[in-house]
Each structure stands twice: as C-alpha cells, then as structure tokens.
Amino acid sequence: KKERQKFFSIFYMSINAGSVLSTLITPILRGDVQCFGSDCYALAFGVPAALMVVALGVFIFGSGMYKKNPPQGNVLGEVCKCIGFAIKNRWNSSKPDLKRKHWLDWAEDKYPERLIQEIKMVLRVLVLYIPLPMFWALFDQQVHV
User: How far is CA 36 from CA 33, 42, 74, 97, in A?
Assistant: First the structure.
C-alpha cells in the first residue's frame, strides 16, 4: 500500500511538473527561437511531442514490470443486471407494506450490498450529466466567426 501511495505521488508530481515546465518553456521556444525567418512553432510543439514519444517508450519498455491481472467478469453487465433485477422486483412486489429506502435496495436478494452502494454512487454522479445536452445544444447555436 505504501509503494502504491509513493508511486502515485511521484507520478502525480511528475505530471504537474511537466505541465508547469511546458507552460513556461513553450512560449519561450516559440518567441525567442527563430526557424525559417519567423517564430518557431515547429520547435515549440515538437519538443513536447518528442517528450510524449519518450514517455510512451518508457511506458512500453516498463510494461514487463507491471502486475497484469486477467480480466474477471463484466462490471457493466453486472450493473445492468442489478438495476434490471431491482426494477423487476419492485414492479412485481405484491406486498405494499414492504418499503425500501432506495429503489435499488430491491436487488438485495440477489446482489451484494457493496455493488448496490456503488451503483447508487454512480447514479448520483450521473445526475450531473443531465444538463449537458441542453448546454451543448445552446453552445452550438452560437455564431462562430
């Protein structure tokens, strides 16, 4: 667990350091270095591109050291089955006195509590995406000059 935390901290620090360096170096390379008699856009964007290729090479070269677990099951399928089972159980429930806090709780008979709780969390996040189609419909109506 400590190694994972250390790795993530170093990885995150490297990403942020690269972002800061590129924010500082790209304008300097573009403005202060001359290529073909004008600003050197090719160098300004070629250096980050070359560094991305190096990063990809390091990633591929180091892939032999990764712990690779074979895929197990289909999470999306389990989620859909759990939601379908909860809806079916709720719809077919003949006992009106049975109350559940959440409609997904009707899947407790077949699916683990952890899966149900995680689906509830995902559904709460997905609510944030409801206004997106309206936003993009309005955004795309702007006149672009």
Answer: 10, 10, 55, 81
- What is the total residue count of the chain? 145
C-alpha 109/C-alpha 82 separation (Å) is 10
By C-alpha distance, which of 110, 106, 62 is closest to 88?
A: 106
Query: In the numeric block, which tokens belong to residue 64?
Result: 């032999």
> What pLDDT is attached to residue 59?
85
Q: What is the pLDDT of residues 48-70, one digit of tens each?
A: 888 889 888 988 998 888 888 88
Helix 75-92, helix 113-126: angle, nearest 10: 90
Q: Is 40 buried (19+), middle (13-18) or exposed (0-12) by CB count in 10 A? A: middle
pTM score of the predicted model: 0.52
In angstroms, the CA 29 to CA 44 distance is 5
